[in-house]
């Protein structure tokens, strides 16, 4: 199983700030994350996605040229910043992360490009919007790849457990990304934007690296491996304690045997001395 590796160097686009933003005129607070009605349904899969993307592409938020965010605002009409969308997870490569965060909004015309990769995690209330309105918006913005992940086994919210769309140059719309299950039976689709295959594995996200033909370790697996390692350490510690107890028992037994031999030797010496005295007296 592969571990995550940092993304290669990226040429960062200059940020073109276009005037002050009148935040008071917004009908939302950009400092507040967008709350979803079924956040509990989406939370754990989103953490899995964010964990891998943060470690592999942003060096856990340290890279200045890679912007990763969740439930924040993308505006797509320069004339009206109330026209907006809030993806569950999105990633933009080669942009000025610091400038974007200072503006509190992702403005593609200032950042120099739209996000490269967008993901929506299904829930009962957001599912229809993910496959309808949001898909059209992301195509309009020019997002190269749009992915949908439905943790339900039947894909009941999105109609599919996993789906990806790739923007067709010049066509102004998306075409589906082919999904496969061979050879291991895990549903996966290749993301050219990330150079990885996104996978649906019994309702949980995983990542597959076609270059190395290995799955990347996700948070659940890291936890399982950590727990297994802790269990091995506990077993080894118990083994050491048993061995130490055995050594201590053997040491006590040796000392008892030595004490018994010493007592027998002293008794023999006492009896011999007693015998010599009797012989001397006679």
Mean pLDDT equals 89
Examine the coordinates and then state which fold CATH places here, giving the name of the CATH topology of the largest domain: tt1808, chain A
The DSSP helix count reads 6
Main β sheet profile: 6 strands, mixed
- Percent strand equals 15-25%
Under the CATH scheme, which architecture of the largest domain would be assigned?
Answer: Alpha-Beta Complex
Low-confidence stretches: none
The strand line-up of the biggest sheet is: 1-4-5-6-7-8
Question: Gyration radius, to the nearest Å?
Answer: 33 Å
CATH class of the largest domain: Alpha Beta
* Sequence of secondary-structure elements: HEEEEHHEHHEEEEEEEEH
What does this structure look like?
This protein has 282 residues and is an alpha+beta fold. The chain has 2 domains: 195 residues, tt1808, chain A (Alpha-Beta Complex), CATH 3.90.1570; 64 residues. 38% of the residues lie in helices and 20% in strands. The chain has 6 helices and 13 strands. It has a 6-stranded mixed sheet with strand order 1-4-5-6-7-8.
